[in-house]
Amino acid sequence: MSNALSLSYVFITYNEEKNLGRALESIKDTADEIIVLDSGSSDKTVEIAESFGANVLHNKFVDFASQKNMAISHACKDYIFVLDADEELSEDLKRWVEDFRGGKLEPFHYNAAGFFVARKSSFLGRWINHSGWFPDYTLRIIKRGAGSFKKARVHESFEVHGDKIKIDKNNFMWHYTYQSLEQYFDKFNAYTTLAARDLHDRRLRPSPVRIIFNPLFGFIKQYFIKLGFFDGFHGLVLAVLSAFYVFVKYCKHYFLSAEGKR
C-alpha cells in the first residue's frame, strides 16, 4: 500500500511583504494547501499570499500560540508544516518533502506524529554555523490532529502526542533573522517585556543573582562552549546581544514583580 500523503503549509503574518514571497516560492511545488492567517497587515502581504493561491484568513493578534493554533485548525491535509514568513526551504529539504509526500521514505516515517527540522539562520548578513544556532532543530511538521502549540507570549512550542523524528540536518530551512541592529532593537523591547511577563506568570521568584549570573553564563556558553568564536565578529556580537537580552528580561521581571507587591 502506498504511503503517499498530502501536506498543508501554514503561516501567520503581519506586514511580511519583504519575506513572504520568498517563503511561498520555496514551497509552492510541494504544497497541497497553503493557509495564511493574517493579523491586519497594511502592506502587500495578503496580495502576495493570494497570488500563490493561499487560503487567506484574518484574525486579530493575541499571542503567537493562539494565532498558530487557529491557523492549523483550518488545515485539512494529512500533515501540516508550520513555517515563518522569514524562512524558506533549502533545496535538500524540498527534495525530502517531495519524497515524504510521495511515500518514498522508509515506512517508519509514516507512523510519526511530528518531525523536527533543522534551521540555519542569517544574522546581520552572515550565516551562523555555530553559537548554538545550527542545527537549531524545531518541531515544524505534525500529523493533523496530533498536537497544538503550548501557550506562551514568546517562543511558543508544539506539544505533539506520538513518535517524533529528527530529519537529517542537511535538510534544513533557511532563516533570514535580523539583518541589521536597527531591526534587532526594534523588536528587543517588546520581546524582553513579553518574556518577563512569562516569567511572572510562572511565578518565578525574582533574583538579583539570576540577573547577574544568567547573562554571564549564557555568554560563556554561547561564545566558548557553543564555539561562537568560529562565527567571527558576528559570533561575538550575537553572544553579547543574547546576554544583554537575558539581562534585560530578568531586570524587567524583577521590577514587574516589585510593582505587583505594591
TrEMBL record:
Transmembrane annotation, as ranges: 223-248
Domain Glycosyltransferase 2-like stretches: 10-100
CDD domains associated with the record: Beta4Glucosyltransferase
Coiled coil location: none
Keywords: Membrane, Transmembrane, Transmembrane helix
InterPro entries the UniProt entry points to: Glyco_trans_2-like, Nucleotide-diphossugar_trans
PANTHER family named in the record: GLYCOSYLTRANSFERASE, POLY-BETA-1,6-N-ACETYL-D-GLUCOSAMINE SYNTHASE
Name assigned to this protein: Glycosyltransferase 2-like domain-containing protein
